[in-house]
Amino acid sequence: MAKNPPPDEDPTPTPPTGSDAPTAPEAPTAPEAPRFTRAGAAWVATGAALVLLILLIVFILQNSMKVEVHFLGMAATIPLGMALLIAAVAGGVVVAIAGMARVIQLRIGARRARRGNSRD
Question: What is the number of domains present in the chain?
Fold first, then answer.
C-alpha cells in the first residue's frame, strides 16, 4: 500500500538555486555561413572558366567544316570554328585596348585634379 503525502507538502523536489544549481548544457548553435574570400572567388572563376573552355572545345569540334577566309587581301582555308574563335579573340583585344585607353585617360585626369588641388 502506497503512502499519500500530506496535503501541505509538494511531492516534486525543487531544484537547488544559486551556485549549487547544475548548469544545463547549452543548445548547439547553427554553424556560421561561409564567408566570402578571394580564394573562394578564384575557385568559382576557375570553375566557370573550365565550363566555358569545354563549351568552346565542343563548338570548335562541331564546326570543323573548312571555309575560305579573306582578310586584307590575304586568303586562307581554315575550319569555321577556328575562324570564329580568331574573330572573337581579335574583338576581345580591341575591347581591351579601348578599356586600357579609358583607364589611362581617367588616371591622367585624376593626376591633374590632384595637382590642381595641391596648389590651392
Answer: 1
